[in-house]
Amino acid sequence: MNSQDNYSLLPHNTFGIDARATHFVEYDSVEELQAFVRQRIENGDNSPLLHIGGGSNLLFLNNFEGTILHSRMKKIEVTADENDYVYVRVSAGITWDDWVQYAVDSNWYGLENLSLIPGEVGASAVQNIGAYGSEAKDFIIFVDTVDLQTGEIRHFTADECQYGYRNSIFKTSLRGRYAVTYVHFRLSHSFRPNLEYGGLRAAIERAGIEDYNLTASQLRNLIIDIRREKLPDPAVLGNAGSFFMNPIIPRSTFERIARDYPQAPHYDVDADHVKIPAGWMIEQCGWKGRALGPAGVYEKQALVLVNLGDATGKNISNLCEAIQADVESRFGIRIYPEVNFI
């Protein structure tokens, strides 16, 4: 176990915020994590405790006056292989895209549309990450955790995780209670590409690939190219990817907007609801490429907020609030961050 005091969190958040933690602890096994929690109980330590992954969905507003936990567990194992499906248990500390690459290389299919999403496997089960018509919940069957209040192991079924759009029970009623240690996935031996979202078919056509010849590796590479074109590299320009969730609104609200903006993009959710891109609304409000001090909106994608250099978490938060106010004033819709404010 690695334990350090007064630790800089700069390497552990993609926004590039130089917040510090009073204590930082990395563990290599479930047993080490359990021992740490039980020691806290014995010591009567009630100081704040936060378990993080790759920090790609965090915004530190201040230094963290407590202990940050992080997993160094990195194991992938097949637990069952039957008929068309393979069942795989993956350590929470593995980088998400490394796992996607491993799955594609192993001819285990389903995760291709989730390529190049930043963060670690554990966070995928908390956040229910998604892109291009796919979500982590489509493939998660179980989540293994340790209770940070008792040190006990608990297994959650996918239903018990209460997955929704970029949401789960780990972000709501059980927020901060459990540390994810392993995520169990069910993937297919048959490649059935999901091409119904985000202009993927057009990208395939531009690449000169026929649908019936498309491979999982080709689809993964196309999605990586699309994401790199839209999103800045956090190593160059601090960011957390898509900052805001796309709001799901009543169809009547969208029809009102469409009267003023006939070309407004949207996606039908059901007969009564529509999803409208938050990035489009932000762009209509004139924020694309603009800055508020050292925090700005990415010039190529209005859904992405960036650290232009030495921004604090509060700088990013102030920009978020200004954008929210403008979108609500113009469209009557409140947009909310995907990012967790700490």
Number of helices: 8
Largest sheet: 5 strands, antiparallel
Could you tell me the CATH topology label of the largest domain. Answer: Uridine Diphospho-n-acetylenolpyruvylglucosamine Reductase, domain 3
The structural domain count equals 3
Order of helices and strands: EEHEEEEEHHEEEEEHHEEHEEHEEEHE
Principal-axes shape call: globular
Question: What radius of gyration results from the CA coordinates?
Answer: 21 Å
Regions with little confidence, pLDDT below 50 for 5+ residues: none
Structural class: alpha+beta
Strand order within the widest sheet?
A: 6-7-12-10-11
Total number of β-strand segments?
A: 20
State the distance separating the first and last CA atoms. Answer: 24 Å
- Tell me the fraction of residues in β-strands, as a range: 25-35%
User: Which architecture name of the largest domain does CATH use?
Assistant: 2-Layer Sandwich
Name of the CATH first level of the largest domain = Alpha Beta
> What proportion of the residues is helical, as a percent range?
25-40%
Give the overall average pLDDT. Answer: 94
